[in-house]
Specification:
- The complex is a heterodimer of chains A (about 375) and B (about 240).
- By secondary structure, chain A is of the alpha+beta class.
- Chain A is about 30% helix and about 25% strand.
- Chain B has about 240 residues and is α/β, with parallel strands linked by helices.
- Chain B has a domain of about 150 residues: Glutamate synthase, alpha subunit, C-terminal domain (Pectate Lyase C-like).
- Helix content of chain B is about 10%, strand content about 30%.
- Chain B is built from three helices and eleven strands, in the order βαβββββββββααβ.
- The radius of gyration of chain B is 17 Å and the shape is globular.
- The chains are: A alpha+beta (about 375), B alpha/beta (about 240).
- Chains A and B meet through α11 of A and loops of B.
């Protein structure tokens, strides 16, 4: 398999996200309408969505979405899954056939509960157990990819323009309190179903516009902790960095932003003593997780979204609010399409995280 | 002529503008269409909505007035004409412009006026009513940038790395506080009141947004310009 850097494709991307902080569900239709405004930022080689709060009837179970190259691979993968999980419910994901979305793999969804004895024997906490199973399938079972693995959330992605991918997965029939989406214009790496955004591990997902120049330094570091970069694209490593820092190191998202997009030393020198102490500590503790190159990302997680730019702001990001609704997008027009009248619109600075969360985070669980 | 842009692609919109015999064209319902008014001359566009990137790129004499916020790269490499934004403008506003004027009521994003240059009789100008993001006037080689910092109680009116690599032109900041970490090759002067060319720009800005010039022109400004004593300047054509 060709890895990141062994394949080059000419270069843009679009991101958009919305959250209703009151927790009220909204249809995926909104995101489809929003991302369609930025059609020119994609080239038809990838589109995808993450919806949160979309499986309220199965919210205790891990929802795995998988791509299979063929039926035999599905059979082998299910054998592996059955050795580690109880399958509460599984089915092929219902799609709408479109002329613009072709060559789709076999796409299945499983609602899973870890086998209690297996989990106890592993001496791992439940989320780590699930993450390791995801990594195993993606790295070791050829032709099978877990592209969504959280609870009460789901990733839907593929090769095509994002608005077409949204129709393909019938996202107008899903309702969630938050959505992120991405239109892809691949740089460096091939456009393929697994390589579309969002990338996720457990409930944490990321959509990314940009190009990571530090990819290999970041990848070498993160692979020391058991992560496997298998998806032939740079964005994947950011998903693992966030998972590592939040889930394993216990950092807050704002601290993660200071690791991935720290201020320049020259800028840190102008800050208050307390800020200097924090920023210098984080830069020194995780120097290999500094992400260089242009990026504008939206991180989705249970109960919230975070927008972050590279510290030089080499990609655009606009944030907006309207009552309980909060928006992030590459372009203001993508927000205005779904909410013409806004209370507040602003462009965050480079390296400045913007976090929008449910007013009542516990209620989303 | 009046156009409702809803449902039209950027290309179609520009063709309609180009083919119109009317000098003055109103466009409403704009949502994300890029390159509106590209290289346009001899026309006046009034736009309502949320246009896409590169509004008025390569503008060549036309006037564009936008009622709303502009996105990235407004007036990219513009040659002549005027762009008026009743709102904020995004990153790289006036990128590499070499003539004409841009007036913004509110703030601009990162990299406003980078690579701006003066060319023969042309000297471009950008007047920003609010504040500017980082890298204002990076690599500026000519022309004038004015930041009025309207409505701000104090503090710098431009972000980090202002004037990095600047080797021509002037930046006027209506503030007593210099932006953080100015580069060494930039000379800073405190000036009470502004020279006539800058006064003219401020008066034009005020006329467009209904403000009184007297409230701005006599204030204390910081003038940023390349340091003559710095050999960096000699790397490029003297101007």
């Amino acid at each position: 398999m060709l890895k990141e850097g062994q394949y080059r494709n000419p270069s843009g991307c679009a991101v958009s996200a919305v959250i209703d902080r009151s927790g009220k569900p909204m249809s995926g239709r909104r995101m489809i309408d929003s991302i369609a405004v930025m059609h020119e930022r994609s080239n038809g080689l990838g589109g995808g969505f993450a919806g949160y709060g979309i499986y309220p009837d199965h919210k205790e179970l891990y929802a795995f979405h998988l791509f299979f190259d063929d039926r035999l691979t599905r059979k082998n993968t299910e054998e592996y899954i059955l050795r580690h999980f109880e399958i509460a419910y599984s089915s092929e994901i219902q799609t709408r056939k479109l002329p613009t979305v072709t060559d789709e793999p076999i796409i299945w969804r499983y609602f899973l509960a870890p086998l209690p004895r297996k989990l106890a024997d592993s001496h791992l906490d439940e989320r780590e157990y699930v993450a390791r199973c995801v990594n195993f399938i993606n790295a070791r079972i050829g032709g099978a990819y877990v592209f969504s693995s959280g609870k009460n959330m789901g990733v839907f992605k593929g090769v095509g323009y994002p608005e077409d991918i949204g129709e393909f997965y019938r996202l107008d029939e899903y309702e969630g309190y938050s959505w992120t989406c991405h239109g892809r214009y691949p740089t460096n790496t091939p456009g393929w179903w697994g390589g579309a955004h969002p990338f996720g591990l457990l409930d944490c997902t990321i959509v990314h516009n940009g190009e990571i120049s530090s990819y290999d330094a970041n990848r070498r570091y993160i692979e020391m902790f058991g992560y496997k970069c298998t998806l032939r694209t740079d964005t994947e490593v950011m998903a693992y960095i966030i998972d590592y820092l939040v889930r394993k190191m216990g950092l807050t998202l704002r601290e993660v932003a200071k690791v991935m997009a720290p201020s320049f030393w020259k800028t840190i020198a102008t800050k208050s003593e307390e800020e200097q102490r924090e920023e210098i500590f984080l830069r020194k503790a995780f120097p290999s997780l500094l992400v260089t190159g242009p990026f504008s990302v939206v991180v989705g997680y249970e109960g919230g979204i975070m927008a972050l730019n590279d510290r030089l702001k080499l990609r655009s990001t606009v944030c907006a609010e309207k009552g309980d609704l909060a928006f992030v997008a590459s372009e203001e027009s993508a927000i205005r399409r779904i909410e013409p009248q806004l209370d507040k619109v602003w462009a965050p600075a480079g390296g400045e995280p913007v976090v929008f969360e449910l007013h009542d985070k516990e209620a989303s669980k | 002529m009046k156009i409702n842009a809803n449902g039209y692609t950027a290309k179609k919109l520009n063709i309609m503008i180009g083919r119109s015999n009317d000098e003055s064209i109103e466009i409403e319902g704009v949502i994300g269409q890029r390159y509106i008014g590209t290289a346009l001359s001899g026309k006046i566009l009034e736009i309502e909505g949320a246009p896409g990137n590169a509004l008025g790129a390569f503008l060549d004499g036309a006037k564009i007035e936008l009622f709303g916020n502009a996105q990235e790269a407004t007036g990219d490499t513009m040659n002549a004409g005027e762009i008026v934004i009743h709102g904020n403008a995004g990153d790289a506003t006036g990128y590499a412009m070499r003539g004409g004027e841009i007036f913004i009521e509110g703030d601009v994003g990162y990299r406003c006026g980078i690579h701006m240059k003066a060319y023969r009789g042309n000297s471009p100008a950008i007047v920003i009513g609010g504040k500017a993001g980082s890298f204002l006037g990076e690599y500026q080689a000519g022309g004038t940038i004015v930041v009025l910092g309207d409505g701000r109680a104090g503090g710098a009116v431009a972000g980090y790395f202002c004037g990095t690599g600047m080797h021509g032109g002037e930046i006027w900041l209506r503030s007593q506080d210099a932006p953080a970490a100015l580069p060494e090759q930039v000379k800073t002067e405190r000036v009470k009141g502004v020279p006539s060319n800058v006064e003219m720009l401020i008066k034009k800005w005020c006329a467009k947004f209904g403000k009184e010039a007297i409230n701005y022109t006599g204030d204390e400004f910081l003038k940023l310009s390349p340091d003559d004593a710095n050999p960096y300047k000699r790397l490029y054509t003297p101007n």
